[in-house]
Amino acid sequence: MLGPVILAASRSDRMRRLVSAAPVTKQVVDRFIPGEDVDDIVPVVRELADDGLELTMDVVGEDITNPAQAAAARDAYLELVDRLKPLELGTRAEMSVKLSMFGQALDGGHELALKNVRPVVEAAAGIGTTVTLDAEDHTTLDSMLAIHEELRKDFPETGCVIQAYLFRTEADARRLAASGSRVRLVKGAYKEPASVAYQDKHEIDRAYVRVLRTLMRGEGYPMIGSHDPRLIAIGQELAHQAGRKLDAYEFQMLYGIRTEEQLRLAAEGHRMRVYTAYGTDWYGYFMRRLAEKPANLRFFARSMLTKS
């Protein structure tokens, strides 16, 4: 039950200072976050693409407290688009955005987030690629899905993320699958109350399979966000049962986790997309990666003991 504790720590300024000051932290963070700015990330994009992998890039940072910070987040993504353009990778290099970075939690945040994210989606379309709207905690989901629906009127390839542990997700998946959306399915990485989300791992896994079956049978493009070998195998079987070709769905994993498996899937002809985050405001993202997978926490703790 360490996950909820780590998620609480991700919101603690005291823990942020403690973890950031640890001598080994940078070494461990580099496993998951390969750079702090766009100059760092471009060589990583080239390397992953040369290995036959695809990417979705996230400029990390969610603690937006004023409209100027939201505009700066927008501009950071626009700079990323400019740097991707000469690489001519098209949809092999897309972007993931958290609407909290675009001002969603501020006064008038829904409209502000839509205003800020639209030019990013438009710029991405201009270089032949797409944007996926990440899911955050359940209180933001209606706003995210409404913005997704609005953006798809002009940019139908805009994707979104749904989380298997939420009770509502099966209904959301049926609607999104019928509309032909690009949908990334993940288990969920936020601390949610028992009133809205499954708490037991086995219940979450079962919900994941139910939702994935709906997406595979639907009219959209499923994106399987998981490192779980069993769920990956089930995803392949559900795609086969639905008559989907290898280019009609994809797998997604985080940068730095199960790299050999990523390469194996790509070598077999699957679309394998690597979620690659970068930026200086890495703390919240890093702590959620620890919460998602106990092995990540053991890796970090072991490094603290041996390197500090």
Major beta sheet, strand line-up: 1-2-3-4-5-6-7-8
Largest sheet, in brief, is:
8 strands, parallel, barrel
The overall average pLDDT, rounded, is 89
Summarize the amount of helix as a percent range. 40-55%
**Silhouette:** globular
Total number of helical segments? Answer: 13
Q: Indicate the multimeric state.
A: single chain
Terminal-residue CA separation: 26 Å
By helix and strand content, what is the structural category?
alpha/beta
Task: List low-confidence stretches.
Answer: none
Count of β-strands? 8
Q: Provide the succession of SSEs.
A: HHHHEHEHEHEHEHEHEHEHH
- Quote the beta fraction: 5-15%
Task: Evaluate the radius of gyration.
Answer: 18 Å
Question: What is this entry, summarized?
Answer:
With 308 residues, the protein is of the alpha/beta class. It has helices spanning 2-9, 13-21, 25-32, 38-50, 67-84, 109-126, 141-152, 169-178, 201-217, 229-241, 259-267, 283-292, 294-307; strands at residues 54-59, 93-97, 131-133, 159-163, 182-186, 221-225, 250-254, 272-278. β5 (182-186), α9 (201-217) and β6 form a beta-alpha-beta unit.
Helix-strand blueprint:
Elements: H1 2-9, H2 13-21, H3 25-32, H4 38-50, E1 54-59, H5 67-84, E2 93-97, H6 109-126, E3 131-133, H7 141-152, E4 159-163, H8 169-178, E5 182-186, H9 201-217, E6 221-225, H10 229-241, E7 250-254, H11 259-267, E8 272-278, H12 283-292, H13 294-307
